[in-house]
Amino acid sequence: MSVYNGERFLASAIESILKQTFADFEFLIVDDGSVDRSAQIIADFAARDARIRPIIRENRGLIVSLNEMIVAARAPIIARMDADDLSYPDRFARQHAFLNEHPDYGVVGSWSEDMDEDGRPMQRSGADHPLTHEQLLRAIDAGEQLICHPAAMFRKDVVLSVGGYHAAFRHCEDLDLWLRLASVTRMGNIGERLLRYRRYPGQVSSRHSTEQQIGTAIARLAWQERQAGRPDPTASLERLPPMSALDELFGRPGLSRQVREQVALGLRYSASALRDDGFDLLVDHLRDGGRQDGMWRTVARLVRYGEPVRAIRLAATLARARAA
């Protein structure tokens, strides 16, 4: 578990791990330079439970923290957990048993259930995660969800064999890892809801929606390159380039425009993205003659989000594009 300013939900997340029916584990927790009470909360739990190995240090970012803990872990199997979610008591037992029974699987996740910031159940939208490796490969092709990151359990040696998490894919580091692992091991999910996933405006996926969607699109391009037997140009990057540089990076004209359109259409439904630089990306897409699918509904959505000025800007852009 990597923690950065997670005091609000941290204690309950830690308690959900300490209550696992499978109790033979070490619990690595990195406090990644928090400025709230997170470090003290971790230290208090560590004083009461010897299974916790706290690492308290300056901020280095999530990906550095995850790779640090993978190397430091003494067990051959590692479970991921986030500081704002809750694991059900039998999560570790069910996943550990699955990996023992399926030695050809290097990663197993589980289905999850959504809750709001106060722990109240939320209605799920979309399909559940794929169960078998074959279903997961079809989900990759369809651009669907693969494995819920905080619900994942994996074999340490398999993840290290592909270089762990890649620094360039901030905020979608899990997808990039799953796509690289899909070529070297079998992966899937247990069809039980073993994790409660918290959704709220302050979570990382909400605050970095635009960057996450851009990274997701590039990760899938890299997957296609590897599947075609071509070198992955993102493999050694510390940071992804701007979308305008993708044609040059992958050596194929038209990719920059393709990715921008894909991301722009995906951002239509993200309130956080439409309030940040995702809005400008969407407008640039339309000014360049991009697809207008559902954009007038996005105007109405912006009004509902309390963004009337942006709604007017988007409507004016659509009107000019129609006139042209």
Question: Can you describe this structure in just a few lines?
Answer:
This protein has 324 residues and is α/β, with parallel strands linked by helices. It has helices spanning 7-18, 38-48, 62-72, 91-101, 133-142, 156-161, 173-181, 204-207, 209-227, 246-250, 255-267, 271-275, 278-287, 295-304, 308-323; strands at 2-3, 27-32, 52-57, 77-79, 86-87, 105-115, 153-155, 186-198. The termini are far apart.
What is CATH's topology name of the largest domain? Answer: Spore Coat Polysaccharide Biosynthesis Protein SpsA, Chain A
- Classify the helix fraction into a percent range: 40-55%
| C-alpha termini separation | 52 Å
Main sheet: strand order? 4-7-6-8-5
Number of domains: 2
**Overall 3D geometry?**
globular
Low-confidence stretches: none
Evaluate the radius of gyration: 21 Å
Strand content: 5-15%
CATH architecture label name of the largest domain = Alpha-Beta Complex
Q: Please provide the ordered H/E string of secondary-structure elements.
A: EHEHEHEEHEHEHHEHHHHHHHH
> Got a strand count?
8
Number of helices: 15
CATH class of the largest domain: Alpha Beta
Biggest sheet descriptor: 5 strands, mixed
Structural class by SSE content = alpha/beta
Query: What is the CATH superfamily classification of the largest domain?
Result: Spore Coat Polysaccharide Biosynthesis Protein SpsA, Chain A
- The mean pLDDT is 95
InterPro entries: Glyco_trans_2-like, Nucleotide-diphossugar_trans
Protein name: Glycosyl transferase family 2
Keywords: Transferase
Organism: Novosphingobium pentaromativorans US6-1
